[in-house]
Task: structure prediction
Amino acid sequence: MKSIVILVSGRGSNMEAIVRAASPGARIAAVISNRPDAQGLQFAAAHGIPTAVVDHKAYPDRAAFDAALAEAIDGFAPQLVVLAGFMRVLTDDFVRRYDGRLLNIHPSLLPSFPGLHTHRRALEAGVRVHGATVHFVTPALDCGPVVIQAVVPVLADDDEARLAARVLAEEHRIYPQAVRWFVEDRLLIEGANRVRVRDEATTTSALVVPPVECVS
Ligand code: GRF
Result:
């Protein structure tokens, strides 16, 4: 049985998708937030998952916050730490502590559009496809070996909200999938950037292209 700690800062819909997917062989040991008012905490508590808050405002700097956060995480002794809309930049020390067992989801097809406002920037750039990426976390922001990506079309009448909703629906598919692969010990990091999914060819692909239902 693998224990998982999920970190959230807000809505927590990706955390919810992972909890609902309930990977066999996995137990959500805790949901931790840096914000006491994070909506995701309520869902976790309602589902009997232990919750904790490590409020970043209570610490003088990133290093002190990350040390407190690591202490809270390690109290649950997880094999995997999942960032699910966790809106804090983490120190290199923190990232290295969870090397190879820290996953993040980013709402773009990395390495395109790292950082914030990805949907707006994709629309401004005029790209025809957009999407989401689950990757292992390394010290460089929104970098790190890619586990799975989902691609969605950018449609002619898209605005930021419509595009974000289309991407989010795919996030909710690919993040539980990535977690399942990790729990099954099927993710092998090869070299600096590549992830091999053991036996991938015979199961779900690491590239998800949903059918286009609404091209205008
Ligand atoms: C998601 O779009 C995720 O990709 C990004 O932040 C958002 C979090 O949404 N990192 P939620 O809290 O999981 O609903």
